[in-house]
Design goal:
This protein has 186 residues and is α/β, with parallel strands linked by helices. It has a single domain, classed as Rossmann fold, CATH 3.40.50. It has 7 helices and 7 strands. It has a 7-stranded parallel beta sheet with strand order 4-3-2-1-5-6-7, with helices on both faces. Helix 2 links the parallel strand 2 and strand 3. The longest helix has 18 residues. Bound molecules: adenosine monophosphate.
C-alpha cells in the first residue's frame, strides 16, 4: 500500500512527536508499504522519510520547486514528483495514497488532513484517515470534533470516519478493516 503521511516541517518540542515519526516510518518500511509525503528535508518530515529509507523502504516525495528557500528538498528519496503549486501537491498525494495519516504538525499539516477528512464526509474519499495522537497533541482537535457533533455541525456517523490513535496496532487494524469493508461494498 501507499501510505500518505502529513506532518510538521518542524520537529516540535516533545520527544513523543519525534517518536511518532519513527514508529510510523518503521511500520511503513517493515510492511513493504511506500511512504508518500511532501518531499521535505526538515522537521518530522525529514525524520519520517529517513526512518523509512534506513529501514529499506520506498519514499515518494511531492513538492513544488518554489518551496526550496523555505523548506529544503530531501536529497535521497526514491522518487520525486515536481508539481507547480500546493493544490497540485495535495492532489497527487491524495491520488497516490491508500490511507492518510497525520502526525503532529502545524497549519500545513492541519490543512492537508482537513482536506481528506472533509472529502471523506462528502463521499469523495474512500480511504481511511488517521490522526496519530502522540503525546495527546491532538486531544483538543478531538474535543473540537466532539463539540461539532454536540452542536449539530457534524454527524456521529461522519465523526467515525476519523480514527484518533497513538497505537500502530490499532491503526493497522483500522486500515485493514476499512479496506475490507470497502471491498465488500463493491
Ligand atoms: P507544517 O505542518 O505547517 O509544518 O507544514 C507541513 C507541510 O505542509 C509543509 O511541507 C508545508 O509546505 C505544507 N503546506 C503548507 N501549507 C500547505 C497548503 N496550503 N497545501 C499543501 N501543503 C501545505
Amino acid at each position: 500500500m501507499n501510505i500518505t503521511v502529513y506532518c510538521g516541517s518542524s520537529m516540535g518540542n516533545n520527544e513523543l512527536y519525534r517518536n511518532s515519526a519513527v514508529i510510523v516510518g518503521t511500520w511503513i518500511a517493515k510492511n513493504n508499504h511506500t511512504l508518500v509525503y511532501g518531499g521535505g528535508a526538515s522537521g518530522l518530515m525529514r525524520l519520517l522519510a529517513d526512518t523509512v529509507l534506513e529501514n529499506g523502504g520506498k519514499v515518494l516525495g511531492v513538492r513544488p520547486d518554489f518551496l526550496a528557500d523555505l523548506e529544503p528538498a530531501h536529497p535521497g528519496i526514491t522518487q520525486l514528483i515536481k508539481v507547480e503549486n500546493m493544490s497540485e501537491r495535495k492532489k497527487i498525494m491524495i491520488e497516490n495514497g491508500d490511507a492518510y495519516i497525520a502526525l503532529p504538525g502545524g497549519l500545513g499539516t492541519i490543512e492537508e488532513i482537513s482536506e481528506v477528512l472533509s472529502w471523506a464526509m462528502i463521499g469523495r474519499n474512500s480511504n481511511p484517515c488517521i490522526i496519530f495522537n502522540s503525546g495527546g497533541f491532538y486531544d483538543d482537535l478531538k474535543k473540537q470534533f466532539e463539540k461539532m457533533v454536540d452542536s449539530g455541525f457534524l454527524t456521529k456517523e461522519n465523526e467515525r470516519l476519523i480514527l484518533f490513535s497513538n497505537s500502530m496496532e490499532e491503526i493497522e487494524d483500522y486500515i485493514k478493516n476499512y479496506k475490507l469493508k470497502a471491498m465488500n461494498k463493491k
